[in-house]
Amino acid sequence: MNVRRRRISGIAVAVAAALGLGTLSACAGDDTGTGGTDRFDVVASFYPMAFLAERIGGEHVNVTSLTQPGQEPHDLEVSARQRARLEDADAALHIKGLQPAVDEAISQSGIATKIDAASLTTLVDAHHDDEDHGDEDHDGHDHGGTDPHLWLDPVRYAEVAEGVGRAFEKADPGHAADYRKNTAALVKRLGELDTRFETGLRNTRTKVFITTHAAFGYLAERYGLTERAISGLSPEAEPSAARVRDLQRTAKAEGVTTVFHETLVSDRTARTVARDAGLRTDVLDPIEGITEHSRGDDYLQVMESNLTALQKALGAA
Question: How far apart are CA 219 and CA 193, in angstroms?
């Protein structure tokens, strides 16, 4: 157990999920830095949680992520080495239900502060379209019945940020003022992002968009849109022929122009559906990781790129 963890063992709410061991930014340590540093050591389950920890913790935190850049987070398996590193961290941050292996590792660890982001906002049942997606929706991706993709709604993400900030303040009271200031700054940025989405998507030719992965339900709900997903919650599942025909009918009826795919998953299915329906393809990034292929260097930049892509696809005025 690291020295800093013993000194601030009151970390009650802090970061539950992550086991990620990859370096994230200048504030993040490398693999050898997890635990035993002179900073508040935070393990994050994957990029959206690490982004929060870094922005809120600033210079006082050492953040590592269990999920490496380019790795599909839903399928993450936690290694023995990662479990050992988790024991040396001060806090862990995750979204319960998104990565079952991470949930298990965190629950079994002796880490002082465990933060479940899902408990800091309101989640809803994972909603599917009126057509049955088939068994592929849940194969290997059982989210416990709720949609975990909260970070794609700036309002929910801001609520989580506020909760993480409070947890950091409680766990490391010596830097509480900085955590409070950093949280306020991040929440302000997320509020501005929300305003840009609301304004930018208010007047569009259509409100329907098609994606390969049902990750954008919260975003659609927030801004009055309708997401139709090819393969439900599983980003790599193959759609049925009936599902493809239904989406083709929807595209024609609703004036859909584009089938969106992701950066971390093959675009083969999206291109097949788009070709058969005479549609374009484009990227709508669920921001589960940042790679050289991402349209931006961080969450905020990629969300701006997502807004631009949606405006083009939906025919924003």
Answer: 12
Q: Give the separation between CA 160 and CA 94, rounded to whole angstroms.
A: 11
Q: What share of the chain is helix, strand, coil (3-state, %, to 5)?
A: 45, 15, 40
Q: For the whole model, what pTM was predicted?
A: 0.84
pLDDT at 75: 82
* C-alpha span between 94 and 19 (Å, rounded): 9
Query: From CA 1, how far away is CA 90, in angstroms rounded?
Result: 9
For residue 7, count other CB atoms closer than 10 A to its CB.
11
- C-beta of residue 234 within 8 angstroms of C-beta of residue 186: no
For residue 276, the model assigns a pLDDT of 85
**Cβ atoms of residues 263 and 294 within 8 Å:** yes
d(CA 175, CA 301): 28
Tell me the backbone φ, ψ of residue 46, rounded to 5 degrees. -160, 180
Given a cut of 70, the residues of the chain with pLDDT beneath it are: 1-37, 127-144, 232-238
